[in-house]
Design goal:
Length: 171
């Protein structure tokens, strides 16, 4: 698929079928996330693959009751790992670069999901502590985004975007 068509095709899907995600599809998504640029190439993030129904329900509860998180056959939880970048970039690396690394990797994964004909939605509204417990992450690793992945059970309309004239500022 052409890159610009891919961007136009991407939608936030919140209803999934129970059809499983193939292992090769999941590996392709994870490889795409791993290809994302990162500060100093330190890849200051971790990805947790959540398949077990009980953990997916815990994620949905942690995501303030967004039940569709549990209905997707797999969720990826992207976490920042500032310990990987702080020794090189100090406070700015800890505070900002790790979060940027995790979000860029999540974006690459989201686009890969779309390219594979699958569906997802970026979930950022959640209780950090509850997500952290649901995935069993070590201290110092903080969740940034949840990406439930599945086959779409809906085809939402494209949402309107701000016009470039209100978004872009030439200086």
């Amino acid at each position: 698929m052409d890159f610009f068509d891919l961007i136009k095709e991407r939608r936030s899907v919140r209803a999934f079928t129970q059809e499983p995600i193939g292992e090769e599809q999941l590996k392709a998504i994870l490889r795409a996330a791993n290809a994302a640029p990162s500060a100093g190439n330190y890849q200051a993030y971790e990805i947790y693959v959540v398949r077990a129904a009980q953990r997916r329900r815990a994620l949905a509860d942690a995501a303030l009751g967004q039940s569709y998180v549990a209905s997707a056959p797999v969720s990826l939880v992207f976490c920042e790992n500032p310990g990987r970048v702080e020794p090189h970039y100090g406070e700015r690396g800890r505070r900002l670069y790790a979060k940027q690394d995790a979000t860029i990797a999540c974006t690459f994964a989201m686009l890969a999901v779309t390219a594979l004909g699958l569906a997802t939605v970026w979930v950022g509204a959640f209780d950090d502590e509850a997500v952290w417990k649901a995935i069993g992450a070590p201290q110092g690793v903080t969740p940034v985004a949840i990406l439930p992945i599945g086959h779409a059970a809906e085809k939402p309309d494209r949402t309107p975007r701000r016009p470039l004239t209100s978004l872009v500022h030439e200086v």
